[in-house]
Amino acid sequence: MCSIVFDAEVVSPPSHLNVAFFEDVLETALRTTRVQMLTIHIRMGSSTGENYCSQIYRANVSFKRPDHPEQHMAFIVKSVPHLNSVEFIEDLEVYLKEKITYHEVLPRLELMMQCKRRFGPNKMCSIVFDAEVVSPPSHLNVAFFEDVLETALRTTRVQMLTIHIRMGSSTGENYCSQIYRANVSFKRPDHPEQHMAFIVKSVPHLNSVEFIEDLEVYLKEKITYHEVLPRLELMMQCKRRFGPKLFQCIKRPESTLVFEDLSQMDFVMASREIGLDEEHCLLVMERLAEFHATSMVLAVLDPHIFDAYADGMLSPRGLAKDDGMLMRFFSGNGKELHNLVSSWPGFERIAEKIEKYLQNQRCNLVRSQAPQDNEVKVLNHGDLWVNNMLFKYDTAHRPQDLILIDFQLSVWGSPGIDLNYFFYTSLTLDVLRHRRPQLLRCYHARLAKTLLNLDLGVPVPSYEQIQNEVHRREAYGFFASYGIFPTVSQDKAQTADNNLENFKDEDFAKHKVRQMFESRRLAETLRYSLPHFERAGVLD
């Protein structure tokens, strides 16, 4: 319970300045949801008559974090009421202008100064949902998309005409979220009718996906798209796009993020069922190396920027509960792996080692991601598999460009995390078996080139260091091979009812896991990868 107190001088305080409002503010400021607010004290922030168009308040918040004493943080709140007497505020788009300045412009200007300088502290519109959109979220309304469109266009001088919303991904392709595609038609002064497309990612609050809050995935994506990616792209002199633009993010009534629709720029997904050939993989290695290299530099320029990225997919908090969604899912997959391998002649010793591994599965999973001494550290994407990459092709259908999506499980740590996860979830078996050294050479060459071009004194890891990082994280590859790859290789016809809410049902989960492990591609890949993991000592 948190108390909120307004000074007597605060006459008619805005109703939205409540505990929930400041909770979101504090989480964003601290880059963590692990915080308990205690008190909020609000007083006027300027003398009467000093601000003509706005009300300025000072908010002092006391709070506690795990293993910390009580702390305090102060904020300035600027509120501009909607009054007919100040209609010029809307005419001059002052709210939108400040929003863009603080979110987009100032962080980039400050990065140019290498963080040594600080520059600063609708009309009638119809909305139509396709029949396939069952129970659309009520907050996806005209007012919501008006704000999205104004941010995307950087102007409030726009009249929305129609909004058409349909599902954005096939049923069963997204476990934790609902993806929608929104097409908006609009008019601007002296322009013909125009259209803009958006991707809306909405994460309902469900008990079955409690790990989403445990791992702070909404906050992590918010920080990634608002703070991290723009800086990384600026380091590449805006010649690289690491992710889509984020136009809107709200935490309530449910976590929702709105992105540009990259399909409008001809970016598409490759086939997860087939896997990526060598040409695709080499492009992934180049882009991943650039992403990792720029993150290494950003960590030097802004040492606390990655404080929010301590938890990844296999963090102790995400796996803490035996009956938690992640632990139950990985445990079920582990048991089915043991059942499958036990039926293969010649794999008796490996089956026995898998059985011992599963007796201490949680510790083995946590250890595979846990920080190690003297390791190279980068920002890992954290969920680097086929469906989280969008490719652009030339007329001969050869991949020319790549953009990453879904940064909700990103983690600061060894590049071996991303590399092993990618190798054991996304490659064709032929590439995995024969071309891994070439992929690592490509990755290292681009990593070194990027760090040298940035010329900010960040040491360039040797090729042997990168090899060692991958070897030390082979256990992460083993986890990916049985915890993630069975889902990746599953036939699309079997995935229509795949979602985490359904996986709460024990019988459903067992049936689905058995179905996944019947995949021929999975069996062929495991027959190659398991002896490799045994030789690497992962199963000992």
Automatic annotation (TrEMBL):
<dbReference type="Pfam" id="PF02958">
    <property type="entry name" value="EcKL"/>
</dbReference>
<dbReference type="InterPro" id="IPR011009">
    <property type="entry name" value="Kinase-like_dom_sf"/>
</dbReference>
<feature type="domain" description="CHK kinase-like">
    <location>
        <begin position="257"/>
        <end position="453"/>
    </location>
</feature>
<protein>
    <recommendedName>
        <fullName>CHK kinase-like domain-containing protein</fullName>
    </recommendedName>
</protein>
<dbReference type="InterPro" id="IPR004119">
    <property type="entry name" value="EcKL"/>
</dbReference>
<dbReference type="InterPro" id="IPR015897">
    <property type="entry name" value="CHK_kinase-like"/>
</dbReference>
